[in-house]
Write a structure and sequence with these properties.
heterodimer, A: 413 residues, mainly alpha, MetI-like fold, 2 domains, two-stranded antiparallel sheet, 2 strands, B: 277 residues, 12 helices, globular
Chain lengths: 413, 277
């Protein structure tokens, strides 16, 4: 090698002068940054960028401004009092026809319909009339084409959609909207679904975290107190499901729990029940499958914490006359609480965003926020709503994680 | 340390018995449902119950003869290999950098590197979907590999970073003092020493991609159908015995690969632990 002859002149001595930044330079910052830079750039472009751009859709309105640019500008300049002026009405007429011919009318019609049901048919009907030769020079012409244009709510909806920023999706994600006077009001009862879904998501996640704690605490305790020749093989029983994908394990639960599944057939075969039990496609199925999928995430960190607790303190307490229950409650439990809390927070936050398991084993009334996000992305194509719901999911999740960090500072992770 | 205390009183012995009994039930809950799929997949009949009249590999034959499943396997393998090849070097370099970094920004960096593990996958999935759809990258392998790489990277960073704990960086100083250039030090001294850790990270990256469903649901098209997608659709429509055969193979594969990774990880931690004084 070329370098070997050079280093031969100074055997055994650091030759930092001969090289630029040797990788082991003490406390050098440069090379550590150089090594992390590729990943930093990759994640900025392929992760942070896309996620932030997606979230930005929650507060931006692009449908109306892109289809009707001039109308959008005039709507933004208008104070909203009284009937719209003729210049605005004329621009709207021209741009409805142009958008109809360019094939962009459906997007803006859909957007207006989110805010005011019925707007879609109004926009389409007006487009049809314009195509047939009607002309719009002023507000009166619009009203003649369709009486619905004199409804102030239509113009309020259009002003809300004129962009470029909007509070519409964020408010809608908590079942609120702006009324004509710019006040935040509750949406109509039949449209108010998101608060329910959000509360349901919290409830399911909290129940799953609690179930994991109830099942996981004794297991972690047993593993931590057994001699390692017993604990290690048993630990594999916890790792085994940890390694298998959530999809495969959910599939297994469907096979076991479905109407003519293994469990129901076995119970009927034994004569214990006559008709199959409803074990799946309901809340029970969601709790069973999600607890199963997430339990290792609680056991493993808790086991780590319990392994670190010294037996000497408990022996000391016992020798001073404390009963086993007192020792457990006053010495052992307080030391394991941070680990338990950390595990429950991990389970809770993972459960918040779960999609696969509720989608496969839940019924219609068990779908969580993630299911709504998928629906608005794939089926209703309302991307602004999907983004707002994502934000709604991320905010409590981030708060939980920070709270977790604060509460569990003592957990060695 | 373990907390073994002698159980003197009768009440304590009963308590211990109850604990062990309860834990046995939880262990059964953890393991049996997944393992139950194995005998069901060997049932010669089309009913999803335990076999009573002999065993058969009929559903495995159906699996291997189905063009949809074999194509899905090829797609999964291709995406997972590509993901591993990108995520492993990126994650390994970053983990090495992190291990020696003393900057105040280090916690921020760790947070960013771990974020794809914490952010719900559905959010990563639609972020990619919204980005790729206008670019025409939806229904492409490029999109799927990029998204899977993002999801796989935290595992590589965490595993390699852990294998560097207790690593004696003086070895690298020694190498460079003997004239080795930085890349030589990295590739010929450091890499072999932490090879088990890197291999474990690579296995985690591979399995992350191979098992991934949610991003694939959004980003993959009919030509990129992966094994998990094929399973997801099957479970959603009408669950067939073929799916139990596929599930069995996936359980075996992930147990084998991640079990190996776990052994590698422990070995690497043992190797680099400072000798006991």
């Amino acid at each position: 090698m070329a370098t070997s002859s050079r280093s031969a002149s100074t055997p055994g001595w650091p030759v930092s002068g001969a090289q630029s930044r040797p990788p082991a330079a003490q406390g050098a910052g440069g090379w550590t940054w150089a090594l992390t830079a590729p990943l930093l750039v990759f994640l900025a472009i392929a992760f942070l960028g896309p996620v932030l751009l997606m979230l930005a859709r929650a507060v931006s309105d692009a449908e109306l401004p892109s289809a009707w640019p001039q109308t959008a500008q005039l709507l933004r300049d208008w104070d909203g009092n009284g009937p719209p002026d003729d210049r605005l009405a004329a621009a709207l007429g021209t741009e409805i026809l142009a958008a109809r011919r360019a094939g962009t009318l459906n997007r803006v019609a859909n957007r207006l319909n989110y805010d005011l049901v019925g707007s879609r048919s109004l926009v389409y009907a007006t487009g049809d009339a314009l195509e047939r030769g009607a002309s719009v020079r002023g507000f009166a012409d619009l009203a003649r084409i369709d009486r619905r244009w004199i409804n102030p709510a239509v113009w309020t909806a259009m002003r809300h959609a004129a962009g470029p920023r909007t509070s519409f999706y964020l408010l809608a994600s908590v079942d609120r909207r702006l009324d004509g006077d710019g006040r935040i009001v509750q949406v109509e009862r039949e449209q108010a679904v998101f608060v329910d879904i959000l509360l349901r998501t919290f409830l399911i996640s909290a129940v799953v975290a609690l179930l994991c704690a109830l099942l996981g605490y004794p297991v972690a305790y047993l593993l931590a107190t057994l001699p390692s020749r017993w604990a290690n093989p048993l630990l594999i029983l916890v790792l085994l499901p940890f390694w298998t994908s959530a999809l495969v394990r959910t599939t297994a639960w469907v096979v076991l729990l479905q109407t003519h599944g293994v469990l129901n057939e076995a119970l009927i075969g034994m004569g214990l029940i006559e008709t199959p039990l409803a074990l799946i496609y309901n809340r029970l199925g969601v709790y069973i499958a999600m607890t199963h999928v997430l339990l290792p995430f609680l056991v493993l960190p808790l086991y780590g914490v319990m392994k670190g607790i010294s037996a000497a303190e408990m022996r000391a307490a016992t020798s001073l006359g404390a009963g086993p229950l007192t020792v457990f409650l006053r010495i052992y439990l307080p030391q394991t609480l941070p680990g338990l809390l950390a595990g429950m927070i991990i389970v809770f936050t993972l459960a918040l965003g779960y999609y696969i398991t509720p989608a496969l084993v839940g019924g219609g009334a068990d779908q969580m926020v993630s299911g709504s996000i998928a629906f608005y992305t794939n089926q209703s194509l309302n991307w602004g709503m999907a983004a707002a719901l994502s934000l709604l999911l991320l905010v409590p999740l981030t708060l939980m994680l920070f709270a977790g960090r604060y509460l569990t500072k003592s957990v060695p992770v | 340390m373990s907390v073994v205390t002698p159980y003197r009183t009768r009440a304590q012995r009963i308590g211990r018995g109850v604990l062990i009994g309860f834990c046995a039930l939880v262990f059964a809950f953890l393991v049996l449902p997944t393992l139950a799929v194995i005998p069901i997949s060997l049932n010669p009949s089309a009913f999803l119950v335990f076999p009573t009249e002999g065993l058969s590999l009929r559903w495995y034959a159906a699996l291997f003869e189905s063009p949809a499943w074999t194509q899905a396997f090829r797609n999964s393998l291709m995406v997972a290999v590509a993901t591993t090849l990108i995520a492993t070097p990126l994650g390994t370099l970053a983990a090495i950098g992190l291990a020696r970094m003393r900057s105040r920004l280090k916690p921020l960096l760790i947070g960013l590197f771990a974020a794809p593990m914490v952010v719900p996958v559905i959010i990563v999935a639609i972020a990619f979907y919204f980005l790729f759809a206008p670019m025409g990258l939806v229904n492409s392998f490029v999109g799927l590999v990029l998204a899977h790489t993002v999801l796989a990277i935290p595992f590589v960073v965490v595993v390699v970073h852990a294998s560097l704990q207790g690593f004696d960086f003086e070895v690298l100083r020694a190498a460079s003092s003997l004239g080795a250039r930085p890349h030589t030090v990295l590739l010929r001294v450091l890499a072999p020493l932490i090879a088990p850790g890197i291999a474990a990270g690579a296995v985690f990256a591979f399995m992350t991609s191979f098992d991934e469903t949610v991003v694939a649901l959004f980003v993959a098209g009919p030509d990129q159908r992966t094994i998990p997608l094929q399973m997801f659709e099957g479970v959603r429509e009408q669950i067939s015995p073929t799916i139990t055969a596929a599930a069995t193979l996936l359980v075996l594969l992930s147990t084998l690969l991640l079990g190996t990774a776990e052994l590698l990880r422990r070995r690497s931690e043992r190797m680099n632990r400072p000798p006991a004084v």
